[in-house]
Design brief:
The protein has 219 residues and is mostly helical. Helix 9 packs across helix 11.
Length: 219
């Protein structure tokens, strides 16, 4: 089979985006939040946990903790119990408290809005930073690579890598920058609706119907 050129991949990626935008006009961040701090906390909690479970936990958590100072002053034991059902709660509580302390001490209590500054916060890597920047500040500095994006990027032939950072670099070359934040939401919705991990529903998939997925019927 003839290898697809970079220009052809860019064109197909654009068609993937437009198709999924029509399929999922409601696509957006599924973590409940009302400000950058809430989204930062929710994203930290979402590691190895479903967004549904995180939203259940934060519904109560956000009533108690309104500011970075509130989290910084919380005891490790209390916060652990409040987020216990999200899993890995000890490390998550530690990171949330430490990040909150730094936000108070170095950023005047406000979540920073640059990639460089966000990456200095404990527990924050590129994925979390991209979520906060894209959804709270409207900045397209990168593309979120979660389990859905990783899986679909491979199935769609957009990246051959398994390392999230390398996948992100591949996607950033193919996806128009203005849609970087939206792109991950579209793939997440697609992954939940059609491109399931164990048994993808290729027969109903809007991308398969348009011959935009090289893996259709082969997984």
């Amino acid at each position: 089979m003839r290898k697809e050129s970079k220009e052809a991949m860019k064109k197909r990626t654009a068609e993937v985006i437009s198709t999924l935008q029509r399929q999922f006009p409601q696509a957006g961040c599924s973590l409940s939040h009302s400000d950058p701090l809430e989204l930062l906390v929710a994203t930290i909690l979402s590691a190895q946990c479903t967004d549904v479970r995180v939203n259940i936990v934060t519904a109560e958590l956000f009533k108690k903790y309104r500011t970075a100072t509130d989290y910084a002053n919380a005891t490790q034991e209390k916060l652990e119990q409040e987020i216990r059902s999200t899993g890995f709660y000890r490390n998550k509580a530690k990171n949330i408290r430490a990040a909150a302390e730094m936000i108070v001490e170095k950023f005047a209590g406000k979540v920073p809005d640059t990639m460089e500054e966000l990456l200095t916060l404990p527990g924050v890597a590129r994925k979390t930073a991209n979520v906060v920047l894209g959804n709270s500040f409207g900045k397209n500095d990168g593309i979120v690579v979660d389990t859905h994006v990783k899986r679909l990027s491979a199935r769609l032939g957009l990246s051959t890598h398994t390392d999230p950072n390398k996948i992100e670099q591949d996607l950033m070359e193919l996806v128009p920058r203005k849609t970087w934040a939206l792109f991950s939401h579209l793939l997440i919705y697609q992954g939940r609706a059609f491109c399931l991990a164990r048994k993808p529903n290729c027969s109903d998939c809007p991308l398969a119907k348009k011959s935009l997925c090289p893996s259709a019927g082969k997984v």
